[in-house]
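Memo to structure team: turn this sequence into structure tokens by end of day. - J.P.
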Amino acid sequence: MVRRAASAARYLAEVASRDAKRSLPWLVGLALPIAGAAACGNSHAQQGVPRVTVTGAPIEATEGLAVTGFLARATVTAIVSPALRATIEWGDGTAISSGGISEQSGVFIVQGAHTYATSGTATVHVSVLDSSTGASSSATFAAKVSPRPTVTEFALPTAGAAPYGIATGADGNIWFTEQVGQIGRITPSGAITEFPVPTGNGLPYHIASGPDGNLWFTEKLGNKIGRMTRSGSFAEFPLPRANSTPASIAAGPDQNLWFVEDDGNTVGRITPSGTITEFAIPAPASNPYGIAAGPDDTLWFTETGANNIGHITTSGAFTEFSVPTAHSDVREIVAGPDGNLWFTEFMGGNGIGRITPSGVFAEFPVPTANAHPFDITAGPDGNLWFTEKDANNIGRGAPSGVFTEFPIPTANSLPARIVVGQDGNLWFSEFAGNSIARITP
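Reply from structure team:
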């Protein structure tokens, strides 16, 4: 380790004289604490003496695909104007590379991107040198490199069905909306059945499994909430407010279904028997879009028009938080594996955001420009999985901010919604591909 640190330090010293501060532009200005540190090699450890400390955590990668994002965190002590340079040894025999560094409030984040050719385990070594003082430090951690996941696509029987919303049913099947006016069901083995909705032109939109074991969905143009039994019996409940444009729907902690009304500027609640209550959102013209139950027994939702993340208690009390990136176009939201809420930023942000239950934000732009992240779900592997609608990818993001993107076989499929099945796989809808697809994490 000492020899490796010295080698990296010599490399850094050679490049320090050049104006070579390289950073990944899609991550500049972001900072994230990274736990699980393994730090070594600090050359100035005494109090009051310039010091650099580097920490890192294990990462996940996939063979043949770039792994991109936050690799390590560096802090400095007794350095007034740090001039940091980073190098990364990826542990697979490739050349040492320079790492990008971004800073926020005195915390420096080392960023990098690499593609591993084969699966296995590699040892990553990140070194940071302050060229103004000579202080340096390094961290070593593992990279688990997995084989590529398998993507399987199942074409729908109805041509041009436009599959959109998707949910896992209590029966272990995957249920989805077809905007031609149908609800679809696909078994884990790929058998598909379609059920016509009574209001044929209602535009079935989002769908969720309810606490009563039924499927509940919004009808965007029909201005209704629909309920469907797993045997195919329907009931429809008109909304009190005309032209409210119901969007996302989710099961709440109170055994009711909760939904947002895009043009109604409200959050709605419907009981399993069909009683509807609407709650006006404080921000005007907020255009709520996504909704999900949070870890704090409230409902969290996105406000596309107001650029907020909001939450509402089951008794109707609101709190709203402004997203740091202006015009980020927040869309869907989900409770993450870390006790926080995670959401997509479709246009302006082009990334994934995190908000703690107390309202503290972090934002992580995805690697592909103009990917337009859309839906997001918490995977069985402890990662966040999301659709990149215009990049034609499925993305995987670790809570630490490391990303991998997986191409979809069908070009221009417009992946829309994504959900975890009871089989442990990720299932998503292809709006333009007219398919339901499965990816094995």
